[in-house]
TrEMBL record, chains A, B:
Originating species: Streptomyces albidochromogenes
UniProt-listed InterPro entries: Pyridox_Oxase-rel, Split_barrel_FMN-bd
Keywords from the named record: Oxidoreductase
Catalytic class of the enzyme: oxidoreductase
Protein name listed in UniProt: Pyridoxamine 5'-phosphate oxidase family protein
GO MF entries: oxidoreductase activity
Domain of life: Bacteria
E.C. numbers: 1.-.-.-
Length: 220, 220
């Protein structure tokens, strides 16, 4: 039986340094992906790297990215055979690590890096599932409370899929790692946590005041 | 006299879509860069894209990234002639944009994308300036309140530089852009702002209790 709790490490997903920070745990990878709003999608264009921020959605072990049928990476994935080589990265910054030495300053973070080939999704049912996942990634449940895409919108939207196969997480937690000989230095040392929160929802200017704030926004 | 308030657009920095969101304003580009903690650095390895999160620092129109002398992109930048082609991207997510239609869901964001060639910094004075900038990027002023790198640490650290020349910002603000025929739909519509904050600093377990929290951490 295949191991369903972890992804298999590959030459590209085993770091050359700080290997103790790397993880292939499926649940951890999914949790980091699900907490993000924007990924950084890398691809090669005319021999040079391009890194663009974009929305994404996850359905099991598949990631989806969408865009206009005229956008560059989506056009390239659709035209390339077999697909477009990509690297998709999601990072959360959790804290500022202040060591006594400049050298040991760091950041507490959680990141996921996915290597693979992105393919354009052409199956209509999978396209609809992917588009729902993209909306629900912004706010869980929102796809049930919005008008689904119509034929014209579907025709204008390209969806690409990247399977979670060659993937790893990397996590740094905890305090600074000062050298023993620096412990008596007079500098404050520790971690400043970074927090993320939600402000009060701002209704659109043309929203009918009779439309109440939905429950799924009061519990974000 | 050259235009010092804006960067010159290039084929790579003019988007194919949503051009009204693009900006080449130097002050805006710097402000977005200075507010971030982690950039996503893209480069090409064995023909495939790699996107890694990493710290960075800015000194005027130069960005600096550092790492172990054994890390892949830094090795590649040092060994490559002339340098390593990179794309460096910084993104802030400011709000969730909930439209009445699934199609018009979006994210309010501010991003900067830098295209260029990264070179290893070998001048010792520039290396020290860059390393101070990296520490001060985590907490402004911190380089004055920590032990500077010693010879051994300097020897273990590689620094690469990327000049801000081919660079653009992209910003989405404001509410949803629903189509007129959707305005009467019953769905709540508007923006949920995302906020970032700092938690109470957590002293390292071995910090002498007599060391007070510095002022620059109380005013973050």
């Amino acid at each position: 039986m295949p191991d369903t709790t972890s992804y298999a490490p590959s030459e590209r997903t085993v770091p050359t340094r700080a290997r103790e920070r790397a993880s292939y745990d499926r649940a951890l990878v999914h949790a980091i992906l699900d907490e993000g709003y924007v990924c950084h999608l890398g691809f090669v264009r005319d021999g040079a790297p391009v890194v663009l921020p974009t929305l994404y959605g996850r359905v099991g072990d598949r990631l989806y990215v969408h865009g206009s049928t005229g956008s560059r990476p989506l056009l390239m994935a659709g035209r390339s055979d077999p697909g477009l080589a990509v690297c998709l990265t999601v990072t959360h910054v959790d804290g500022l690590v202040l060591a006594r030495s400049a050298f040991h300053h760091s950041i507490n973070y959680r990141s996921v890096v996915v290597h693979g080939t992105a393919y354009e999704v052409v199956d209509e049912e999978e396209r609809r599932t992917a588009l729902d996942a993209l909306v629900d990634h912004v706010v869980p449940g929102r796809s049930y409370d919005s008008r689904p895409a119509n034929a014209k919108e579907l025709a204008a939207t390209a969806v690409i899929r990247l399977d979670l196969e060659e993937v790893s997480a990397k996590v740094r937690t905890g305090g600074p790692n000062d050298d023993p000989e620096d412990v008596s230095l007079p500098h404050w040392t520790g971690v400043v946590p970074l927090t993320r929160g939600y402000g009060a929802p701002v209704p659109a200017s043309d929203l009918d005041p009779a439309v109440a704030l939905p429950d799924y926004l009061t519990t974000l």
